[in-house]
TrEMBL record:
Gene3D superfamilies xrefs: 3.30.70.100
Natural source organism: Rhizobium favelukesii
InterPro entries associated with the record: Dimeric_a/b-barrel
Protein name as catalogued: Antibiotic biosynthesis monooxygenase
Amino acid sequence: MTKQAIYVELKARSGKEEEVATFLKSAQALVAQEPGTVTWFAVRYDQRTFAIFDAFDDEAGRQAHLNGKVAAALMARAEELLAEAPQLRTPEVLAEKLPG
């Protein structure tokens, strides 16, 4: 059962909105290589507001993701792409419905 999650809200710098969208779309290939990441979503709320939601069966999977390639790539480009630091939350999953 999925027990852990990450929610990260991102605010794009003015003029960098499409670069953030492109970055998030490209991150899917990196996440696909993470066996501990059960589900992953990159979403756009409005022109400048984006978020990432991912879930894991255990804390080890969550930590592997937090220390993985997507997080490293995002932090390497954060100052360039984001208007403010990413807002990271680490919720506990109370219930789930996944395919399969």
